Amino acid sequence: MTDAERYDYDLFVIGAGSGGVRAARTAAAEGAKVGIAEDRYLGGTCVNVGCVPKKLYSYAAHFHDSFDDAAGFGWQLPGPATFDWATLRENKTGEIKRLNGIYQRLLESAGVTLYNARASVVDAHTVVLHNDAGEQQIHAKKILVATGGWPWIPDFPGSEYAIDSNRVFDLETFPERFLVLGGGYIAVEFASIFNGLGSETELIYRGELFLRGFDQEVREFTRDEMARKGVNLHFNTNIAQIEPSNGAYWVTLTDGKTLEVDAVLAATGRHANIEGLGLDTLGIRLDEQGKIPVNERFETAVPSVLALGDLIAGPELTPIALAEAMQLVDIHFKHTTPAPLDYATIPTAVFCHPNIGTVGLSEEQARERGDIRVYRTDFRAMKHTLSGSQERTLMKLVVDDATDVVLGAHMVGDEAGEIMQGIAIAVRAGLTKTDFDRTVGIHPTGAEEFVTLRSVSRR
Ligand SMILES: Cc1cc2nc3c(=O)[nH]c(=O)nc-3n(C[C@H](O)[C@H](O)[C@H](O)COP(=O)(O)OP(=O)(O)OC[C@H]3O[C@@H](n4cnc5c(N)ncnc54)[C@H](O)[C@@H]3O)c2cc1C
To answer: Which residues does 393 contact at the CB level (< 8 Å), separation at least 6?
Structure first.
């Protein structure tokens, strides 16, 4: 029996998110016969309940500052600016529908067969699809599990009243008082978003300081700037219980404080979305990090079953899922050996206000490796000389003292993500501080500080 007789597809992908769609399209472009199942939304987390709606809401929140800043530049608004949540929410939904359509057309034009169904794996080459129409068995030479992550909320009294990041985008009414539980980037971003949109915002985090793993100075600077913008930060505490009260919620903290709020967002982590997938029966189990172990060919314990994206170890970011998809197709369908992904120089942004942009090693990580020089500056951006805003910007470079190589670059400030993308190329290329110094600045910008930092701030 040939493969074509034995299998319906060369590749069957479960989950049409960032990684799944990219793998399906690029494998099909290599001549593979590809099918894909999606049970919820085309484009996955990023398009529907992640990066895209989050960034749109972040833009919306920035207008708050812009209206305040405008007066110093001579602009007068006819009256106080008002915000309409329903307009933002519906416009966001319209844009996501447009993107869902684009994803559908991309798959169709690549020749990928799309099934609107929930899939589970029954053996090394068989997938069962379930939807209202019933069940269907598919045989595939290779199965790619790309089902991403799902928000997780810890169990505590009243935890059922907390919403997760999937639901926060579509709240029926705008929460005048908003509470976020968590200390990761999603928590920090939503605290900034709702604060910017006009909610009285509380952020509760059980640890000393949010954004664990980021450069310590960046974390402290962000804390101070977010507090300056009006987010009420509560560290070293947690939610003890949530009780409903007249359409609102009384939240009791473990330190005894009580807060009355209109919505509680638990941004308390995500876990691998594998419920009902049947991986257990194949002997594919999560590791102690809650991830599916794969080898460098993205093969699980069952070599014909592959996995990528948020399901496997590594940063949970869309560009990582996309890069892994390209590598997987190179390996399995182009039969080439791609250079391994350089996980050490993955740039990332946190869209809190002001934004964080970062690439490479934090000062603490670099110090553990050897002697370093730190170049840093913090300043009030030129725009704020007239706007009157007290917002400050932080920029820093972490440099290996012996080799002069820039090991890390960090920024907290306007458009930090946009700026860091370019700096990341230099850090990825292993350029030295001397290379940075020899680069002519673009004046007048904030970004030029990255090439004009001359004096060592500390060693
Ligand atoms: C609030 C939030 C903000 C984020 N912001 C950013 C950001 O700014 N930048 C960034 O890079 N990343 C961001 N991310 C992370 C990013 O969204 C993920 O890293 C990325 O989507 C992972 O892609 P994936 O392909 O692994 O899975 P996903 O994109 O999650 O796709 C998985 C798909 O599988 C489907 N599925 C699951 N089970 C089944 C099944 N049994 N059958 C059929 N289909 C199934 C799901 O419905 C989903 O569509 C954010 C995430 C969140 C939650």
So the answer is: 354, 378, 379, 380, 381, 411, 412, 413, 414, 446
For residue 345, pLDDT beyond 90: yes
Give the pTM: 0.96
pLDDT at 129: 98
For residue 375, what are its two tokens?
A: 């170049």
Could you tell me the strand order of the sheet in which 239-245 lies? 239-245, 248-253, 258-261
Whose tokens are 């989950």? That residue is 15
Q: Tell whether the model's pLDDT for residue 442 goes beyond 90.
A: yes
3-state helix, strand, coil in the chain (%, to 5): 35, 25, 40
Q: Give the residue, by CA position, lying nearest to ligand 1 atom 49.
A: 44
Q: Which helix (H) or strand (E) holds 36?
A: strand 34-38
Contact, 210 vs 203, CB < 8 A?
A: yes
Take atom 48 of ligand 1 and give the residue whose Cα is closest: 44
Residue nearest to atom 45 of ligand 1 (CA): 15
- Please give the backbone phi and psi of residue 2, each rounded to the nearest 5 degrees, phi first: -80, 165
Average pLDDT, the chain: 97
Distance in Å, CA 272 to ligand 1 centroid: 10
Q: Is 321 in the pocket of ligand 1 (CB under 6 A)?
A: yes
Confidence (pLDDT) at 342: 87
Tens of pLDDT, residue by residue over 99-135, are 999 999 999 999 999 999 999 999 999 999 999 989 9
The radius of gyration of the chain from alpha carbons, rounded to an integer in Å, stands at 24
How far is 416 from 354, CA to CA, in rounded Å?
8
The tokens for 91 are 């416009």
Which conformational region is residue 247 in: left (phi greater than 0), alpha (psi within -120 to 50 degrees), or beta?
left
What confidence tens digit (pLDDT) does each residue in 326-341 have? Answer: 999 999 999 999 998 8
Peptide bond into 293 cis (omega under 30): no
335 catalytic? Reply is no
**Ramachandran quadrant class, 430 (left: phi over 0; alpha: psi -120 to 50; beta: rest):** left
165 Cβ below 6 A of ligand 1: yes
Ligand 1 atom closest to residue 120's alpha carbon, by position in its atom list: 41
The share of the chain scoring above pLDDT 90, in percent, equals 96
Task: Compute the distance from residue 45 Cα to the ligand 1 centre, in Å.
Answer: 3
Complete DSSP assignment for 382-442: THHHHH-----EEEEEEEETTT-BEEEEEEESTTHHHHHHHHHHHHHTT-BHHHHHHSPP-
